[in-house]
Design brief:
The chain is of the alpha/beta class. The strands form two sheets. It has a four-stranded parallel sheet. Strands 1-2-3 form a three-stranded antiparallel sheet, with no helix packed on it. α2 links the parallel β4 and β5. The chain starts with 6 loop residues before the first helix and ends with a helix. The model has no long low-confidence stretch (mean pLDDT 95).
């Protein structure tokens, strides 16, 4: 278990630890899209003093068109977008198996929009962090979705609430 994510969920996403690739003390998740391994995302397991909180291998890989775990979503009509990997893992753990990670507030763009359009998404719940970057991202995402006639709603969480820490009851209340 790590950051409230249970071992069953971590196992479902093939999370692992390693001493290789400068990923010592990181929990790693292989990121696949369309059946291909795109990169490994590592999250530091200690207090990140002097260590990057996230570490990606290969380090400079582009996430411009990556929505994870797109390959695991069965019904693509309605999608929930979140900023981070652990936001997505928490939502999946709570049963929201239509949640996709965009890998950062500033990482939604026309390439990701094209992917959503191509797979038949018609409705998106935008569940970004309640801070200024998250809410600016939510507005930008809604504008882009509108250009493809994909309906959206911004789920505004209270300040201090993070999608990665929502409880079952909170998620049900916010996503009703």
């Amino acid at each position: 278990e790590f950051k409230g994510i249970g071992s069953a969920t971590l196992k479902q996403f093939r999370a692992f630890t390693t001493e290789e690739l400068q990923l010592h003390n990181y929990i790693c998740v292989p990121i696949y899209q369309f059946g291909k391994l795109k990169f490994i995302e590592g999250r530091y397991m200690g207090s990140a003093q002097g260590q990057p909180k996230y570490y990606r291998r290969p380090q400079k890989v582009s996430v411009a068109d990556i929505l994870f775990p797109l390959d695991k979503v069965r019904n693509t009509n309605h999608i929930i977008l979140v900023e981070g990997l652990f936001d997505m893992l928490n939502m999946w753990q709570l049963g929201y198996k239509n949640t996709l990670c965009i890998f950062g507030a500033s990482n939604f763009n026309r390439k990701k929009l094209e992917v959503l359009d191509r797979i038949g998404v018609t409705r998106v719940d935008i569940l970004m962090d309640p801070d200024a970057p998250g809410q600016m991202a939510a507005s930008k995402i809604a504008e882009l979705l509108n250009t493809r006639d994909i309906s959206s709603r911004n789920i505004k969480l209270p300040v201090g609430t993070d999608p990665g820490e929502l409880t079952q009851r909170q998620a049900e209340a916010f996503l009703k």
